[in-house]
Amino acid sequence: MGEAASTVPVARRHLLGIEEMSRTEIVHLIDRADLIADCLARDNRPPDPLPGHLLISLFFENSTRTRASFQIAGQHLGFSVVDMSLATSSTGKGETLLDTAMTLNAMRPDVLVVRHAMSGVPHLLSHKVNCAVINAGDGNHEHPTQALTDALTIRRRKGTLEGLTVAICGDIMHSRVARSNMRLLTIMGSTVRVVAPATLMPPGIEAFGALPFESMAEGLEGADVVMMLRLQLERMHGSLVPSTREYFRFFGLDSDKLRAAKDDAVIMHPGPINRGTELDSVLADDIGRSLILEQVAHGVAVRIAVLEALVQNAAAGVPG
Predict the structure, then answer these.
(1) Whether 156 contacts 163, CB under 8 Å
(2) In this structure, which of 16, 108, 137, 158 has its CB flanked by the most CB atoms within 10 Å?
């Protein structure tokens, strides 16, 4: 069994990062998403739809999983959903980010879902618009709904987050998923290790409460969960890894390296996977150990829970 269900609401108007959240809020959202995931699996609908609301997703980076997940979550709740991307936004015609946000704000959305390559953009917009703002990934800062999704996925498989050892492996330097997960998992009582070559390990990582390793054998020793990260070559300025082949040899997960973890250790990846660079295909497709598709499914439940909470808070007049 997981942590006891909380009756305390999520006391915020926006969801901008795990760094701002309390343990009580995290547990509340995971508990609610757990219930929603059961409802979706049974009836393909959430328990309490909230029709009549407008969600606008504003993505300045390519995304498949996160964007589709928010769209499906909004549709399950009965929201009207408008999808904006860099290709269809007027920023391509020279309009500033703030002008775009203010234009969308004038259309009176209830929720604005924002992804941007620059850290802090969702925070900036949250001060300029009247609606709720959800951070769908900003720079190398945070991706809070992915961390909530990962926590729900781990808890449904392992029964708890307390006392687990989670190894987050790969491109820690450029990963907002890693930062949000380090914050959330340490709050929830997990021991977090980060494993990466020195060139992809950001300085000061200990401040997140994580233990750094430069060896997969040492970092995976006795781990309950092995979370692999995408190698973000598009964010690298200069050569931080000798080659993808060499990277896989030392930091890609295969059956030999996985033997250092517990026998029942599970494998995760936020996607998209670069097979043969971060993760061996045999492990990625191992339905007994890989939770990757469960992460995708649970992402919808988590985003429904977040949308519910923020819309209800707006109706209740919770200040921003």
Answers:
(1) no
(2) 137
| Strand ranges across the sheet with 165-169 | 211-213, 191-195, 165-169, 225-228, 266-268
| Chain segment 26-74, per-residue pLDDT in tens | 999 999 999 999 999 999 999 999 999 999 999 998 888 999 999 999 9
pTM score, two decimals? 0.94
User: Could you read off the pLDDT of 274-297 as tens digits, one per residue?
Assistant: 999 999 999 999 999 999 999 999
* Residue in 305, 230, 232 with CA at minimum distance from that of residue 73: 305
Angle between helices 23-43 and 292-316 (to 10 degrees): 110
Instruction: Tokens 């996977």: give the residue.
Output: 273
Q: How far is CA 153 from CA 34, 189, 244, 292, in A?
A: 9, 16, 29, 9
Distance, CA of 122 to CA of 149 (rounded, Å): 19
Task: Please name the residue that has the structure tokens 């380090």.
Answer: 182
Residues 181, 150 contacting (CB under 8 angstroms):
yes
